[in-house]
From TrEMBL, chains A, B:
Binding site for substrate: 190, 216, 237-240
Enzyme class name: hydrolase
Protein name as it appears in the record: amidase
Native source organism of the sequence: Phialocephala subalpina
PANTHER family (UniProt xref): AMIDASE, AMIDASE-RELATED-RELATED
GO molecular function: amidase activity; transferase activity
Length: 582, 582
């Protein structure tokens, strides 16, 4: 008997929701966004104990400080995050898989290990880590939002790998002492900056439920945004780590491909190897990102993932940044700033965020230069081709498994099956890509002539989306994130401010550059956007993860300090308080 | 007026030969191989002065020691190598391009720099470096053996790059003080282990002119084998550095892709990026290989080539090998040994070379284990597909430019234009490749259980071809070199011995494994092969170039010492002298 996709989806959804302990169910449904726009902070806190709030609002660095010194029990930490994640899911639909029981049992074992040996199992001892639903975890399914993948291994039956196989990074996280407890929602196909599929429906932005949580690592963004996880891993082929990090006010990093192990993860269009999807963390602090990357690199992933390059964590590269800054009384890094790519201009909140970060950098004594790289139009033409080599064959096959429909966000790009690229066409695009990358890096090199620091630009301050967050089904332009994937640079997300409808007013009389730009311009509505997170990306060169994180931390800390000095009691909610900084 | 390809080829050939100074022309043609099998050593020396012999028979390390201390003038060194290269070309057809005048002028400028500043320009000050004819060098053509590329830039006219554009590594070599003076022959398409094209004809093996010099970096192999160059660069997508190194008794290394800059080089099937061709050096000593790689990495090629990973030269990885050996009285590395891949067995001289190296390792106190990796048959099926993604379109287009015919060595594989792979088929092969690589690396990891050293195998001792050298048009099996490209490992060539017809007799009653194996078996003729070089490869993991070179040097030095102790007065010509070592 063939079961219709609606039934399969509902059964799956119900079976996951059934794993939430009764005591953690919300007493009543969350009010609509019109009544309760923001479910973070005080709203979610009302369902938690003070101890749970303390634990879940501590960043990953603080957590491992407590768990590796036995000040906190791993089990208490695991339970607190499982509880908060359960609440988060009920508020915004951010989970695909729940395995709280396994997590609590794992945490219990860690506590027993500590009691017996008097030391932690590893540097991430007892740290809850959430995973995008591309990771395979023992005893748990991976659907990646496809109804047709339910009960299979990546859509295939009878491989014997279902619920047994684990992705390489999962093994490494376990080795390091991390606690795995949930997998987070994605848009089916992974090819969207929003998160929607026929199993969980739509994942909303917890800070402003009128808006998208981002995608494709959208469940990660929403969950960590609600502090239902201190740190989690997403993937990024066109912005999928940075977009949800930004939309949820988080730090995140898209490492260069080959820095962290992607081995054994599910994917769309697996084997397309012109633009590789990369895996990287999202978290509430830069420290958390460093903590998990550094820990993973101690596992020598290059011995377990054929695509990882042998590049250990390099403290000296971080130190080199600090040495420059310390030797210059806090400044003298050189930044490029990119306000627009010439195709689309950013909405007012994003433009203000750029001003804030540029002014912050300048006040510290850094130099900021206009960034005029090789044509982004050309860059994006090459990049977007790589996503359509197979004409949509892989995506269509996945939908055909169950007969489920495509979300409109996917339909707009993959709705019609097209001709496949030939080997010659793919090769030509690879050559064009390499040529563009070469031009871009030589442009970057050339800036050593203008910085006056003896070095080229240290990093580029740039938007990663033209809006604070996308409105549902209105993510019309990916160019601001995707150029980074094309050149394979390291890029971290720096949360900057919140949309303030009183400051971020509509540009009256704006003359759009083109149709795409007009769409972005018209999508801005101060009333609707009010309170949403606004973030930027700090872009470094290939494999400069250490440097990019160091710079992101420097800029973030400086801006937080500035807010405090300006009298903002809540630097994370700096509404209106920084107007006089600009 | 359309000029026929024969005329174009002859004009090109004549124009290059015309660049040989009259004084350096051979007084009479070289006798046939039946009379003068070996043109190395005493044969070529007869045309050189004692000073020229001294210079050209010094390895690259010795040369830079003299040139960077002004003991030798760069100009004298350049002239000596230009002279010897001119002789080599007349003997075996190993050059595509000659630019002795530019080289001597460059050397003169280096001498003037030294005279003025009292120091060398860089670590390669005055070192002649030969280049495979894929490198673009200012004022010089790149034909890659295609008649249709004559007078063009990679087959295209009017780009304005002809004779102007330089490959990235060329720039870096110049920065380091190297002297560029010739480009060496290749088989058209580069897809052969022999060197033949319609411009220069066939490049013969100088040590045994019955045999092929190897390919595709065959001109490099022949030229350096005749000591017409101390070190040169070739490329390797299936064995093309290692094969000519081995066939000419040289050291050479195929680095992992992304270690050295390939940027801006001509290629066949450019943009095929499942198996990347890599660039690496061939030379007369391991020290020379280290010298040039280390020097190039000081140029930070990752800032100039988008595909190079940021991995500087790591002295500590070399030192780690030496520390193990020193702590163990000379031994305690662990080797895998692969005598056959189960598809083809090696001819007697290669089997003897394996025995020599294994015994050498064991005598030093190292451990040697049988190597049983995942199926090489499966590996090669994946690897060979990557060479035929475009069905031969690129190759056919190159031949069509002039109407020239394919050499039989190429025709056998690319003769018929086939269907192109689709994007989905390429993606599936990429997935299969990654899965194989993962299995292979986990097999390697698993050997830590058997070595007793606490580490997995340090390197694998393996043949890189089933024969000492190929007989013309009889290179029937590439599997022994190509598996390394599939897993992207670092592999150095260790020259071991010479074919000795009195020891290396035919296997009577040999039962071939299959048709391929039978071809290899039947191709062995002790009389014809007598005196040919025999070499093996030492294979390390991805990006372990430092370790592989350290190990290759240790084994090579030990075997040379053993030969000396056995009373061989000429360790480079150990005929018969080592029989009692085995």
């Amino acid at each position: 008997m063939v079961v219709d996709w609606q039934t399969l989806a509902k059964e799956k959804r119900d079976s996951v929701n059934a794993l939430i302990p009764k005591a953690w169910l919300l007493p009543s449904p969350v009010p609509p966004a019109s009544e309760q726009r923001d479910v973070t902070g005080k709203y979610i806190q009302q369902f938690l104990s003070p101890a749970e709030i303390e634990i879940t609002e501590t960043d990953a660095v603080g957590i491992v400080k407590n768990t590796t010194s036995a000040k906190w029990k791993a089990r208490d930490v695991a339970e607190a995050f499982c509880h908060r994640a359960a609440l988060a899911h009920q508020m915004v639909n951010c989970l695909h898989e729940i395995f709280f029981d396994a997590a609590i049992a794992d945490a219990q074992r860690l506590d027993e290990y500590y009691a017996k040996h008097g030391k932690p199992t590893g540097p991430l001892h007892g740290l809850p880590v959430s995973l995008k639903d591309q990771f395979h975890v023992k005893d748990v399914e991976t659907t990646m939002g496809y109804v047709g993948w339910i009960g299979t291994f990546e859509g295939k039956k009878g491989l014997g790998k279902e619920k047994v196989f684990e992705s390489e990074m999962v093994t490494e996280l376990r080795n390091l002492g991390a606690i795995l407890y949930c997998k987070t929602s994605v848009p089916h196909t992974l090819m969207a900056g929003e998160t929607v599929n026929n199993i969980i429906g739509y994942t909303w932005n917890p800070k402003n439920r009128n808006l998208a949580c981002g995608g494709s690592s959208g469940g990660e963004g929403a969950l960590i945004g609600l502090k239902g996880s201190p740190v989690g891993f997403g993937t990024d082929i066109g912005g999928s780590i940075r977009i949800p990090a930004a939309f949820n006010g988080l730090f995140g990093i898209r490492p260069s491909s080959g820095r962290l192990p992607y081995e054994g993860m599910a994917n769309s269009m697996d084997g397309q190897n012109s633009t590789l999807s990369v895996v990287g963390p999202l978290a509430t602090s830069v420290g958390a990102l460093k903590l998990v990357i550094k820990a993973l690199l101690t596992q020598e992933p290059w011995l377990h993932d054929p695509l990882v390059a042998e590049i250990p964590w390099r403290d000296e590269q971080e130190q080199a940044v600090l040495d420059i800054v310390n030797a210059s009384g806090g400044g003298q890094l050189a930044f490029g700033v990119s306000k627009s790519d010439g195709i689309v201009n950013c909405q007012p909140p994003v433009r203000r965020a750029i001003d804030i970060v540029v002014k912050t950098a300048e006040k510290l004594g850094h130099k900021v230069f206009e960034w005029n790289p090789p044509s982004h139009k050309r860059c994006l033409e090459i990049a977007f081709k790589t996503w359509f080599y197979d004409g949509g064959a892989d995506v269509h096959a996945a939908f055909a498994l169950s007969g489920e429909p495509m979300a409109s966000q996917i339909k707009s790009s993959y709705g019609t099956l097209k001709d496949q690229f030939t080997a010659s066409e793919i090769a030509a695009n690879n050559v064009a890509k390499r040529a563009y990358q070469k031009e871009y890096m030589e442009y970057w090199n050339s800036t050593s002539k203008i910085t006056g620091t003896g070095r080229p630009i240290d990093a580029v301050i740039a938007p990663l989306a033209p809006f604070a967050a996308a409105r549902p089904d209105m993510y019309s332009y990916y160019g601001l994130s995707t150029w980074v994937n094309m050149v394979d640079y390291s890029a971290a997300v720096l949360p900057v401010t919140l949309v303030d409808k009183t400051i971020d007013v509509v540009d009256e009389g704006y003359q759009p550059l083109n149709e795409q730009d007009e769409k972005v311009h018209l999508a801005y509505d101060p009333e609707l956007y009010d309170g949403a997170h606004v973030a930027l990306q700090i872009v470094g060169r290939r494999f400069q993860e250490e440097k990019v994180l160091a710079i992101t931390e420097i800029l973030g800390d400086a801006w937080s300090r500035a807010l405090r000095e300006l009298g903002s009691s809540t630097p994370k909610h700096p509404l209106k308080h920084h107007a006089n900084f600009l």
